[in-house]
Design brief:
Strand order of the largest sheet: 1-2-3
Radius of gyration: 25 Å
Number of strands: 3
Order of helices and strands: HHHHHHHEEE
Distance between the termini: 55 Å
Structural class: mainly alpha
Length: 147
């Protein structure tokens, strides 16, 4: 909000639609921001003006006229695909580990789709084995037992 306040040029309370259009067109769109960052600024601006004008942040409450026109969605060609590790990347990471513990942690994380926090909370007693699967008690993940 500080950045917006410094660049909008007038006090928030007295800003009209034209002032906000000028801010978005003359400052925000000229910054070297990624599309998602510009959208984040617009969402912040819309929510802030909803609070300033109505005192509410309720989702059911419509946005004020000053900011209702602002689009807060990305165009299809502006969306960035998330980056994932390929099985080859994971294999290389596992081979680069210095000890068995790290190899097991990486392997279990990848095979079960665990988050880092989940593997760090896991204890030896949390895993039970049957003939072909291992079950992580706390996290409801099933792993094929590698042979």
């Amino acid at each position: 909000m500080k950045t917006i306040g410094e660049n909008i040029g007038i006090p928030f309370e007295s800003a009209k639609r034209n002032d906000i259009e000028n801010f978005v067109g003359s400052w925000l769109n000229k910054q070297n921001y990624k599309p998602q960052t510009r959208i984040d600024y617009i969402i912040i601006l819309k929510r802030f003006y909803k609070f300033v004008r109505t005192g509410s942040v309720d989702r059911e409450e419509p946005f004020p006229q000053e900011v209702r026109f602002l689009k807060s969605t990305l165009k299809a060609n502006e969306r960035e695909l998330p980056e994932y590790l390929t099985p080859t990347d994971v294999e290389l990471m596992i081979k680069a580990c210095d000890n068995q513990r790290d190899r097991v942690m990486l392997s279990v994380c990848f095979e079960a789709g665990l988050r880092a926090s989940e593997i760090l909370l896991m204890c030896v007693g949390d895993i039970t084995f049957d003939d072909i699967r291992a079950r992580a008690r706390r996290f409801q993940h099933l792993l094929d037992v590698l042979q």
